[in-house]
Amino acid sequence: MKSWLGIVGRACVEFIIILILLSFAAGASISVALPAGDFRPLYVYAGEAALDLTPLAALLTLFLAFFSFELRIKNRAAGWLGLFCLGALLFSFGLGLRRAPLIRDLATPARGAKSAVRFIPPAAAVQQGRSAVWIGSYEGGEAVDAVGVDFGSDYPRLAYSPRAPLSAKGGEVEIQGRNYSAAMPEAGRVSLVPEASVFAGSWIWDRLAAMDDEPVHLACAVAGGFLLLAIGFRFLCRISGWPLANVFLAGAGLAGLAVMDAALSGPAPLSLLKTLARSFGLSVSGSILLASVEGALGLILGLIDIAARSGGRPGRNA
Q1: Shared domain check, 45 and 100
Q2: Domain count, the chain
Q3: 87 with 218, same domain?
Q4: In this predicted model, what pLDDT tens digit does every residue of 174-185 receive, in sequence order?
Q5: DSSP states of 70-137 as a string?
Q6: pLDDT of 115
Q7: Strand 157-167 relative to strand 142-150: parallel, antiparallel, unpaired?
Q8: Confidence (pTM)
């Protein structure tokens, strides 16, 4: 029991360290795509990113815990139970942190600031769609020397107003009775690994982040299915007789697991799962179906791993 609790305690410390490192890396990548006038301290972006990255930090912590339980817990069933409890603790912490009233109150102003309309800078022309706007300066709630051009016809229409009213809600300026978009275009997201976006689905941490307004049991079901599937790949940490090879194989297996989960969350696989469920008379959401499939597969792999016995030289924890 002491070894079991020691592994869990060390894993929690590793989780915090991994989460901090991931958060600052993500915060740095977020700041790359922002205009120079919107820069804030790096720890602000890191704090915002930390809420979304708790599932990824939990997955990496489980990867390290695979080897800790394998080396120190001889009973495979006890090791599997320890990994499940550890994963449930880490994923529950992430979900609870996102839904805590204090965290929600702190995150709401930041999200509101992000969604606030920013007008184009003075003396700069910006084209959006089939129109372009140039504004000389701003005074109060009006644009001074506003020029709008409509490229929607064969003969572009030029409009000018010495003082044009601004709409802060819609980010528009009214020039000679017509509204033109004067909002600053949103900066495109920077993808550090664009080659990874080859599927229509989304990462598990992105899906959980989008479920803040969903019932908590639904988010727990999605996280639980992914957790069971991840633990099912525990056998990779002892698949060969070379410890270093096992480290690379287990790391590759968990990376492939995350990619497979994201691919299965796409519209086509979910539609197929819904069709199969309807054929059995079940009316369940796609998220629950995917979590059920992943959880069942993880349980099967776990049971096989617990029951399997090597025909050759027994492992040190067998």
Answers
A1: yes
A2: 2
A3: yes
A4: 888 888 887 776
A5: HHH---HHHHHHHHHHHHHHHHHHHHHHHH-HHHHHHHHHHHHHHHS--BPPTTEEEEETTEEEEEEE
A6: 47
A7: antiparallel
A8: 0.67
Give the three-class secondary structure for 184: coil
Place of tokens 């930090």: 57
Answer whether residue 270 is part of any domain.
yes
Query: In this structure, are 110 and 139 located in the same domain?
Result: no
What pLDDT does 40 receive?
66
Three-state secondary-structure class, residue 167: strand
100 and 24, same domain (yes or no)? yes
Residues with pLDDT less than 70, the chain: 1-2, 30-40, 42, 103-117, 168-169, 185-201, 309-318
71 within some domain? yes
pLDDT digits (tens, 9 = 90+) for 179-208: 888 777 665 444 444 544 445 567 888 888
* SS3 state of residue 213: coil
Domain that holds residue 145: 124-181
Query: How many C-beta atoms surround the C-beta of residue 176 within 10 A?
Result: 13
Taking every pair of Cα atoms in the chain, the longest distance, rounded to a whole number of angstroms, is 88
Q: Does the residue 48 lie in any domain? A: yes
Token couple for 180: 């033109």
